[in-house]
Amino acid sequence: MSLLTPDQAAEALSISTRHLLHLTDDGALPFINIGRGARTIRRYEPADIEAFKNLRKQTTCQSTFERTARPERIRTSFKSPVADFQAALERRRSGKRAG
Question: Can you give the residue ranges of the Helix-turn-helix domain (predicted)?
Fold first, then answer.
């Protein structure tokens, strides 16, 4: 089994090399240091790349899967009136239609 260079690993994940380095720095993707001393030379096992892809695989989009109810109003401690931009926009639109 041969190890992958950062360019090859990034290509296998369809991401940039910079993003790959961020993933390894964050600990999300393991690497093998083949460097000597203070210099780090990173290599990646193909099995680790596949395991990472399998962990990130999703079947549903979380943003559309489950809708949560939004609160009606958010209470504030400010004494200044809160601008209702939606109502102002509706007033403006209705004024243009009438005129």
Answer: 3-53
